[in-house]
Write a structure and sequence with these properties.
- The complex is a heterodimer of chains A (75) and B (493).
- With 75 residues, chain A is an all-alpha fold.
- Chain A has 4 helices and no strands.
- Chain A has a single domain, classed as ACP-like (Non-ribosomal Peptide Synthetase Peptidyl Carrier Protein, Chain A, Orthogonal Bundle), CATH 1.10.1200.
- Chain A has helices at residues 2-11, 31-45, 56-59, 62-74.
- The radius of gyration of chain A is 11 Å and the shape is globular.
- Chain B has 493 residues and is mainly α.
- Chain B folds into 2 domains: 6-174, no CATH class; 178-492, no CATH class.
- In chain B, 71% of the residues lie in helices and 0% in strands.
- Chain B has helices at residues 6-21, 27-42, 47-65, 71-96, 115-130, 140-148, 150-153, 161-168, 176-207, 218-247, 265-271, 274-289, 292-304, 307-330, 334-352, 354-363, 371-393, 397-409, 423-448, 453-459, 462-479.
- In chain B, α10 (218-247) crosses α17 and α12 packs across α14 (307-330).
- The chains are: A mainly alpha (75), B mainly alpha (493).
- The A-B interface holds A 11, 13, 27, 30-32, 35-36, 38-40, 42-43, 49-52, 54-55 and B 131-133, 266, 270, 281-282, 285-287, 289-290, 295, 298-299, 302, 311-312, 314-315, 318-319, 347, 351, 354, 358.
C-alpha cells in the first residue's frame, strides 16, 4: 500500500489519498491522471489493466485501487 | 416533425395521455409506438437504418453475453462502416476531385435523422454488455425503445442503458410534480431556442455570410453571438427533450453543466455536450490508450523519456486522436477536423506541461484558490473556446482564418446592420438576445453556486410558476424568430 501511495502522490501531489473516497466521482482525478496511474501500475506491478476495469468504483480511493491491483496480480 | 410546431406539441400531449391511460406494465409499449411513429413521420425509408442499428447491436450484445468472440468487432465494423459511407463518402470524393484530372460525381446519400446519436447510444450498450458493465436486454422491442425513444433521438443526450433503463421501462405513476417539472423545463428550452438562439442566428448568419465582406472586426461580435446561439440552441433542445421525458417519468442524462463557467478546455468538455464527451472517453479514449500498440509506445516512452513526458506523451497523443474523432463527428469538412484537433492539441500540451505549470504558479505566487485566479481561468477558457467557434461556424478553414485575422486587424463595423439598415429591428433583436442571455446567465450562476433552481421553483406558489410560463409563452410570440433556422443545429448529426 505504501508503494501505491507513493505512486499516487507522484501523479497528483496535492491530493490526500489516504482519506479521499471519491477520486473519480468528485473529479479529483481526471482521465489524464487515471491513465498516467494505469501506466505506472502496469509497470510497477507487472499487471495488465483493460478497459473493462476502467470504471469509477475501481479508482475512487487508494484502497479500491489497491484491491484492483491485488485482484489482477492474483488473476 | 419539427420540434417547434403545434403538431409536435399535440403529438407529445397525445403520447402522454395514452401513456397514463394504459396499465403500468404496458406503458413502455406506448413509448415505443409513439417513438416509431415519430420516426416514420420523418421519412419511412429512414427507419430501416434505425432498425438495422438496433438489430445488429441487440443480437451482437446477446452473442457478447455468451462470450462469442468476433461478434462485437463485426457489429462495430458494420455500423460504423454504414455511418462512414453515409456521412463521409462525398467528403472523400470532393477531396479526390481536387487531384488534377480526377472528376467523380458526388453521390446522393441520405443522412438519417439523428443517426450519430442513436448509433453511439447503441454502440455504448453493446460495449457495456461486452465489458460486463450492464446486463443484456433480451426483449428486442424493449431494446428498440432504448434506441428510438423519441424525445432524445433528434439530438441526444446519448444515454447509457444502465441508467436509462431504470426509468424507461418503469411505467411511471402519474405525478403532478413530473408535469410541473416538464412544463418549466420545456418552456425554458423553447425560450432558449426561439427567443435567444434564433435571434442570435440572424446576426451570426449575416456576419458569417461568405458573400459579404469578411474584413471586419464584426467577426468578434459574430463569434460571441455564435457562442450564444450554439449553446442556447443545443442546450435548449436538450431541455425540451429532458422535459418531455419527465412527462413519462423518464430521467435523461444531463448534457450541459454551465459550460461557460469552465476553467480549462478539459473542464469545458466536462460541461459541454457531456454525454458525447463521456462516450468518447469510455468507448474510444480509454480503449485506445490501453490498446497493445499504445501500451507498448507508453512503456517505451516511460523508459526512454523524462518521467513526466514519458507518462504524458502517449496519453496526449490519444487525446489528440479522440478530439480528431470529435471533429470528424461534427461533420465531413476540414474546418471541423481542425476544430477537433484544436481542443485536442491544447489538452495534450496542457497534460505534458502540467508540472511546469505548477512550478510557474508557485514561482509567481499564484493562489489556485483565489477568486481572481478563478475568474482569470474562466476568461482564458472563454477566449480559447471562442477562437474554436471560428472553425466550427465558418464554411471553410480559409474563411475561419480570415475572420479570425481580421477580427483583430480589420476596420470596425464595416458590415453595416442586418435587415438592410433597419436600425430599430436590429436593435430590438440584439436587445432580446442580451436580455435572454442575462436571464440564462442568472439561472446558470445560481446553479453554479449549487442552488437547486428547479426544486426552488417547485416549492414556490403555483401562481408564480404560471406567471413564469405565461412570460415564456408571451416572449415566443413577441420576440421569437425562426426565420434563421427552422430546426435544431445538432439535429443534422
Amino acid at each position: 500500500m505504501d508503494d501505491l501511495l507513493a505512486i499516487l502522490s507522484d501523479i497528483a501531489p496535492d491530493v490526500d489519498f489516504e482519506h479521499e473516497t471519491g477520486l473519480v466521482d468528485d473529479g479529483i482525478l481526471d482521465s489524464f491522471a487515471i491513465l498516467s496511474l494505469v501506466g505506472e501500475l502496469e509497470d510497477t506491478y507487472d499487471i495488465r489493466i483493460t478497459p473493462k476495469e476502467l470504471i469509477p468504483v475501481n479508482f475512487n480511493s487508494a484502497e479500491a485501487i489497491f484491491a484492483l491491483v491485488e485482484r489482477l496480480r492474483n488473476a | 416533425m419539427p420540434h417547434i410546431s403545434l403538431g409536435f406539441l399535440l403529438f407529445t400531449a397525445l403520447s402522454a395521455a395514452v401513456f397514463y391511460a394504459v396499465p403500468k406494465r404496458r406503458r413502455w409499449i406506448v413509448l415505443l409506438v409513439f417513438s416509431i411513429a415519430y420516426y416514420l413521420a420523418a421519412g419511412p425509408a429512414l427507419i430501416l437504418f434505425l432498425l438495422f442499428v438496433a438489430a445488429t447491436t441487440f443480437f451482437g450484445a446477446l452473442l457478447a453475453e455468451q462470450k462469442k468472440k468476433g461478434a462485437v468487432p463485426a457489429v462495430l465494423v458494420l455500423n460504423f462502416g454504414l455511418l462512414a459511407i453515409l456521412k463521409y463518402t462525398n467528403f472523400f470524393i470532393s477531396n479526390l476531385n481536387r487531384i488534377p484530372g480526377v472528376s467523380i460525381a458526388e453521390m446522393r446519400l441520405l443522412l438519417p435523422l439523428g443517426i450519430s446519436f442513436y448509433m453511439f447510444q447503441a454502440t455504448g450498450y453493446l460495449l457495456d454488455v461486452h465489458w460486463e458493465r450492464t446486463r443484456a436486454e433480451h426483449g428486442f422491442f424493449r431494446y428498440l425503445l432504448f434506441v428510438s425513444f423519441f424525445p432524445q433521438i433528434l439530438q441526444g443526450p446519448i444515454g447509457r442503458f444502465g441508467r436509462l433503463s431504470e426509468t424507461l421501462y418503469a411505467g411511471a405513476d402519474f405525478d403532478p410534480d413530473n408535469l410541473r417539472r416538464a412544463a418549466l423545463r420545456i418552456a425554458y428550452g423553447y425560450f432558449k431556442k426561439i427567443v435567444i438562439a434564433d435571434n442570435a442566428a440572424v446576426w451570426v448568419n449575416y456576419i458569417f455570410d461568405p458573400s459579404r465582406n469578411t474584413g471586419s472586426r464584426m467577426g468578434i461580435a459574430g463569434v460571441l453571438l455564435y457562442g450564444v446561439q450554439l449553446y442556447m440552441d443545443f442546450s435548449g433542445g436538450i431541455d425540451i427533450a429532458a422535459g418531455i421525458a419527465h412527462l413519462f417519468g423518464v430521467r435523461l442524462d444531463e448534457n450541459f453543466r454551465q459550460p461557460y463557467f469552465a476553467t480549462s478546455i478539459t473542464d469545458f468538455w466536462h460541461r459541454w455536450h457531456i454525454t458525447l464527451g463521456t462516450w468518447m472517453k469510455d468507448y474510444l479514449f480509454y480503449p485506445l490508450s490501453l490498446s497493445g500498440r499504445i501500451g507498448r509506445f507508453g512503456k517505451w516512452c516511460r523508459k526512454h523519456l523524462p518521467k513526466q513526458a514519458g507518462r504524458a506523451l502517449p496519453i496526449a497523443l490519444c487525446n489528440i486522436i479522440v478530439f480528431l474523432a470529435v471533429g470528424v463527428w461534427h461533420g465531413a469538412a476540414w474546418h471541423f477536423i481542425l476544430y477537433g484537433l484544436y481542443s485536442g492539441v491544447i489538452i495534450g500540451i496542457s497534460g505534458l506541461l502540467a508540472p511546469q505549470y505548477r512550478k510557474w504558479k508557485s514561482a509567481l505566487h499564484i493562489d489556485d484558490k483565489s477568486r481572481s485566479w478563478h475568474l482569470f481561468q474562466i476568461f482564458r477558457t472563454f477566449v480559447l473556446i471562442s477562437i474554436s467557434w471560428f472553425l466550427d461556424r465558418s464554411d471553410t478553414v480559409r474563411q475561419a482564418l480570415i475572420l479570425l485575422k481580421n477580427s483583430f486587424a480589420g476596420p470596425f463595423f464595416s458590415l453595416g446592420l442586418p435587415f438592410d439598415g433597419n436600425v430599430l429591428k436590429a436593435a430590438v433583436r440584439f436587445g432580446t438576445v442580451l436580455f435572454g442571455c442575462a436571464l440564462v446567465f442568472g439561472v446558470s450562476l445560481k446553479k453554479e453556486q449549487g442552488v437547486p433552481v428547479m426544486e426552488r421553483l417547485l416549492a414556490k406558489p403555483a401562481a408564480l410558476r404560471i406567471a413564469l410560463l405565461l412570460f415564456f409563452l408571451l416572449s415566443y410570440g413577441l420576440f421569437g424568430d425562426n426565420t434563421a433556422f427552422g430546426g435544431f443545429m445538432y439535429a443534422n448529426f
